[in-house]
Design a protein that fits this description.
By secondary structure, the chain is an alpha/beta fold. The chain contains twelve helices and 16 strands. It folds into two domains: 4-47 and 96-157 and 266-347, FAD/NAD(P)-binding domain (3-Layer(bba) Sandwich), CATH 3.50.50; 163-263, D-Amino Acid Oxidase, Chain A, domain 2 (2-Layer Sandwich). Helix 8 (298-315) runs antiparallel to helix 9. Bound molecules: flavin-adenine dinucleotide (FAD). It comes from Neobacillus bataviensis.
């Protein structure tokens, strides 16, 4: 008989795990929202799936999306000075999670994965531990449901380092070549402009990351779509003139009334396993590896860790899953989690001088510009550029 696994939460982590594991194990996903609730609900995030994540999606047979909005490049601006456009080696893609999650749940159910609509709490989780061979906590930033121990050296912050202000808009002429635009305003924060696919067609995501209490932190108290749109328009006009020049005054609007969001995250990294009543419980994705969104790594890291967990469970398929299995999973993920986390945390601080110099070199040299674009697709390169100066020429 196949071992029975329960995945709590159907975000990137839970879905990628379900796709990877479904042929070898009997999978039940437990999710607090139905696929229709997710589809018609509030946006949850922004997202850019870089080449390695998209390759993993192909390996795991995750549903494909139209390629009309492939992200080919990263545009870098500091202040009002556009530095360069770096080309990504492999194109990336951003699909609204409402669409991606709701569609994938239906697809998995069609392939025999069980789905339960339930909000799991700390009491009901005990029953699940008895019922299943393994419970995997993929509850994202709302979690974790278990007290996975905090890794103190990777969790230096007690408060959010940015206010996240996100809207999915129509009425902005896309940048060329199509890409993610990163604008850094020293001492204020950043703007990420991301081309994305939604149920309503292509949109432009405007994602402001404001340093708390700075002059860019000006969306406090804004609750409805109309106020949000007006505020975004005036903020872009004041702080991001190049984007404002591409805005079509008449047609600039949210793509639907639920396509805006304000949130703030206190990053925290946890050891992703523990024993409850002598049984192994693991975490995957934001529930255990929660970083600030500033480097756009959350979905990619969640997917990476899902693959590492899949490989661990497959390797230990015929043995008892215990602390050794959990430690094997942690050993496989630890270094990459550290690299993503330390780079991401560094990006919330003023850029170090040697990194500023690298960015300036990118403005003079297309090869360097392309290397810097790759930081986002391959964060190990960013980590090396930030922390081991010897690797930089
Ligand atoms: C503003 C913002 C911008 C971001 N931008 C990017 C970006 O550009 N690129 C990128 O890669 N990442 C980005 N991220 C991070 C990315 O969204 C997350 O890392 C990713 O979604 C994590 O996936 P996950 O599966 O761990 O969690 P989630 O996607 O949060 O999914 C968790 C699921 O668990 C369910 N759930 C939660 N609690 C329970 C419960 N008790 N019972 C049952 N179900 C439950 C939820 O309903 C949800 O479906 C951003 C995040 C934010 C907030």
């Amino acid at each position: 008989m196949k071992k029975r696994l329960c995945i709590i939460g159907s975000g990137v982590a839970g879905l990628h795990l379900a796709y990877a594991l479904k042929d070898d194990f009997d999978i039940t996903i437990i999710e607090r929202q139905s696929s229709d609730q997710i589809k018609n609900g509030r946006i949850m995030s922004t997202q850019v799936h870089f080449g390695s994540t998209r390759n993993r999606e192909k390996r795991f047979n995750v549903p494909k999306w139209g390629e009309q909005a492939l992200i080919e490049s990263i545009h870098i601006t500091i202040g009002n000075q556009k530095l360069f456009v770096g080309k990504l080696r492999d194109p990336a893609l951003s699909v609204d999670q409402r669409l991606y999650y709701s569609h994938s749940i239906k697809d998995l159910v069609g392939q025999g994965v069980s789905f339960r609509l339930e909000k799991v709490d700390k009491e009901s989780v005990e029953v699940l531990i008895d019922e299943f061979d393994l419970v995997i906590d993929c509850t994202g930033k709302n979690g974790p449901l278990f007290p996975f121990p905090i890794e103190e050296d990777l969790s230096p912050f007690q408060t959010p380092q940015r206010k996240c202000i996100v809207g999915y808009f129509i009425g902005i002429k896309e940048n060329t070549p199509l890409g993610v635009s990163v604008t850094v305003l020293p001492e204020l924060g950043e703007m990420f402009e991301i081309p994305a696919i939604t149920e309503h067609g292509p949109v432009t995501i405007m994602f402001i990351m404001a340093i708390p209490n700075s002059d860019l932190d000006i969306f406090k108290g804004i609750k409805n779509a109309e106020e949000f749109t007006l505020k975004m328009r005036s903020t872009v006009q004041q702080f991001f003139p190049e984007i404002y020049n591409r805005m079509d005054g008449k047609h600039f609007a949210l793509c639907d009334e639920n396509s805006f969001l304000q949130t703030a995250i206190t990053p925290v990294i946890r050891k992703p396993y523990l024993l409850v009543n002598n049984k192994l419980v693991v975490g995957c994705g934001d529930s255990v590896f929660l970083n600030d969104p500033i480097t756009g790594q959350g979905c990619n890291l969640s997917s990476y860790c899902a693959e590492q967990l899949y490989e661990t469970l497959t390797e230990y398929k015929n043995s008892k899953w215990d602390a050794e299995t959990g430690e094997c999973y942690w050993n496989r993920t630890k270094q990459y989690v550290k690299e993503v986390t330390e780079w991401t945390n560094a990006m919330t601080k003023p850029l170090p001088e040697h990194v500023v110099q690298l960015l300036l070199q990118g403005a003079q040299d297309q090869v360097k510009a392309n290397e810097i674009a790759e930081w986002f697709a391959n964060p190990t390169k960013a980590y090396n550029a930030f922390f081991s100066k010897t690797t930089i020429h």
